[in-house]
Amino acid sequence: xxxxxxxxxxxxxxxxxxxxxxxxxxxxxxxxxxxxxxxxxxxxxxxxxxxxxxxxxxxxxxxxxxxxxxxxxxxxxxxxxxxxxxxxxxxxxxxxxxxxxxxxxxxxxxxxxxxxxxxxxxxxxxxxxxxxxxxxxxxxxxxxxxxxxxxxxxxxxxxxxxxxxx
Length: 166
Ligand code: THU
Prior knowledge:
The chain is α+β, with helices and mostly antiparallel strands.
């Protein structure tokens, strides 16, 4: 443990853990099911790791995405960014309420949810910061428990945003 001579702050967050879909409200179950369906359309011949995302907007519309890979690996895009960019393009200015993400390889179904990668956290934060309302995350693996985060900032503390640019 570090002893700081100056001030220090501990940053923490509460992660909701649900053992099954049935424990969640219907709205969350529906969104996770849509993310799961979206995952079927992942184009992931290189990693075989398929991810589906479903974004629920304040106007009740749902926008989906799945990871789209490329032979030139960095040219591919994650499911979360496909979904939030599509939401921004189709429904500009409509706040995002929540995002469900279902991520797993088909060969070895993950029992633990996979959290969004750093680039996706940053991209989702841009929307949260702009709309000044938290974006809730629902995360699921191939099977098993579901994690719920209240805000993208929970998993991206000290985020870099437009405010940082001055
Ligand atoms: N992937 C996502 O779609 N979302 C993430 O947050 C992490 C990774 C995709 C990218 C790539 O197609 C595959 O999963 C393996 O990294």
